[in-house]
C-alpha cells in the first residue's frame, strides 16, 4: 500500500502541499480532483520520487520514498506513471517502445521483452499497431501506448495524471476504457482527473484538493453527488455546469 503522512512540499516560498494525509489500499482506485494549481500533479511526482518533500513521509510497500538510502530506480519499477503528454520514443515502433524498459532496466532478453510487449499492446487494444511509429498513432492510441509501456514493467501501482485532457473528445473513451479494464484487473491506481463522471463511476474514493490540502475525502459517489464541504460543492458546480 501507499501511505502518505503529513506531506509538505514547497517550491521556494510557495507551499503547494500543506500536510497531505492519504493511504491507498491494494486494489483501490483513488481519484484526485481539484482546481488548477491545487497540488495534484505535485503529489504524484512526490510519490514516485520525482520531487523532494520538505516534511512528512511517503511509504510505498514499506519503503520510505524520500529516505536517503532508497533506490529510486527499484522503487519506480513498482510505480507506473502516465502523464498528459505523450512521451514515446519517436524513432522506435510501438512494440519496441514497450519492450525498451524491460530490456534495459530488467535485462530481459530481446525475445522475451518483445513477446511481453506484444501482450501489453494487445491488452490496450493496439495489437494491430505494433510496427507503427508513435507519429502514426492517434492521440488516444499514443496514450494507450504510454499505458502499455508503463504496464510492461509490471508495476504494483499506476499513477495517471490527466491522461485524457489533451485528447479530442472522441478519443477520450478508448483511454478511459483501458483504465476501467485495469481497475477490473485489480490494479491499484491513483488517477488525477478533471473527468468528474469518470471519478464517480470508476473511483472507489475521491479526494478533493484545494490549495494544497485535501478538503474532502470519501466514497466516490458520495463526494461527487453529495459533497459535505462547501468548497467541494462550489468546485463541482463550476465543472459540472
Ligand atoms: N517545478 C515547479 N517549480 C515551481 N513551482 C511549481 C513547480 N511545479 C508546480 N509548481 C507550482 O505548484 C503549484 C501546484 O502545481 P500542480 O502542478 O501540482 O497543480 P495541479 O493541481 O496539478 O494543477 P492542474 O490541475 O492545473 O494540473 C502551482 O502553483 C504550480 O505553479
Ligand atoms: Mg496537474
Automatic annotation (TrEMBL):
Gene Ontology MF term list: ABC-type amino acid transporter activity; ATP binding; ATP hydrolysis activity
List the keywords (alphabetical): Amino-acid transport, ATP-binding, Cell membrane, Membrane, Nucleotide-binding, Transport
> Where's it mainly located?
membrane
- Keyword Magnesium appears in the UniProt entry: no
List localization entries: Cell membrane
Give membrane topology per the record: Peripheral membrane protein
Q: Which Gene3D superfamilies match?
A: P-loop containing nucleotide triphosphate hydrolases
Q: Which CDD domains match?
A: ABC_HisP_GlnQ
Q: Which domain of life is it from?
A: Bacteria
Q: Report the Pfam families cross-referenced here.
A: ABC_tran
What is any one of the record's Gene Ontology cellular component terms?
Answer: plasma membrane
All copies of domain ABC transporter, residue ranges: 2-236
- PANTHER family noted in UniProt: AMINO ACID IMPORT ATP-BINDING PROTEIN, GLUTAMATE_ASPARTATE IMPORT ATP-BINDING PROTEIN GLTL
Q: Which family does it belong to?
A: Belongs to the ABC transporter superfamily.
Name of the featured protein: Amino acid ABC transporter ATP-binding protein
Source organism (scientific name): Bradyrhizobium rifense
Amino acid at each position: 500500500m501507499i501511505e502518505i503522512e503529513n506531506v509538505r512540499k514547497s517550491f521556494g516560498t510557495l507551499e503547494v502541499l500543506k500536510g497531505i494525509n492519504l493511504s491507498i489500499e491494494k486494489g483501490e482506485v483513488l481519484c484526485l480532483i481539484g482546481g488548477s494549481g491545487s497540488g495534484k500533479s505535485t503529489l504524484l511526482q512526490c510519490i514516485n520520487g520525482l520531487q523532494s518533500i520538505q516534511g512528512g513521509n511517503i511509504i510505498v510497500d514499506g519503503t520510505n520514498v524520500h529516505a536517503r538510502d532508497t533506490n529510486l530506480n527499484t522503487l519506480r519499477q513498482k510505480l507506473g506513471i502516465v502523464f498528459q503528454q505523450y512521451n514515446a520514443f519517436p524513432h522506435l515502433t510501438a512494440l519496441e517502445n514497450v519492450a525498451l524498459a524491460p530490456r534495459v532496466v530488467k535485462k530481459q532478453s530481446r525475445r522475451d521483452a518483445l513477446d511481453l510487449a506484444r501482450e501489453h499492446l494487445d491488452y490496450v487494444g493496439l495489437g494491430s499497431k505494433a510496427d507503427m511509429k508513435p507519429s502514426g498513432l492517434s492521440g488516444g492510441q499514443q496514450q494507450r501506448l504510454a499505458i502499455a509501456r508503463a504496464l510492461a514493467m509490471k508495476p504494483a501501482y499506476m499513477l495517471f495524471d490527466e491522461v485524457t485532457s489533451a485528447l479530442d473528445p472522441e478519443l477520450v473513451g478508448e483511454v478511459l476504457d483501458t483504465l476501467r479494464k485495469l481497475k477490473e484487473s485489480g490494479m491499484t491506481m491513483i488517477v488525477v482527473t478533471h473527468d468528474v463522471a469518470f471519478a464517480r463511476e470508476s473511483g472507489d474514493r475521491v479526494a478533493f484538493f484545494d490549495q494544497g490540502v485535501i478538503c474532502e475525502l470519501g466514497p466516490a459517489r458520495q463526494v461527487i453527488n453529495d459533497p459535505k464541504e462547501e468548497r467541494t460543492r462550489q468546485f463541482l458546480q463550476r465543472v459540472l455546469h
